[in-house]
Task: structure prediction
Amino acid sequence: MMSDDVTNDVERSISTFHKAKIAFLVASFVSLALSVGLWIAGERTQAIFVGIWVPSIHSLGTLVLTGEGGR
Result:
């Protein structure tokens, strides 16, 4: 009975981890798409500014998702 509770906790934890990972990936994709759209629209400076969000979002995601590994 105890192992079922542990298994459920692990499954919930993995599910939460994957949801957070997907959220960061979606945010990065939206930033990239917005940057490309701005570039095509002729807003070069704004496109570059938004484009540099992509690695920042990835870095934040890595920090958040690996920061709780010791729990």
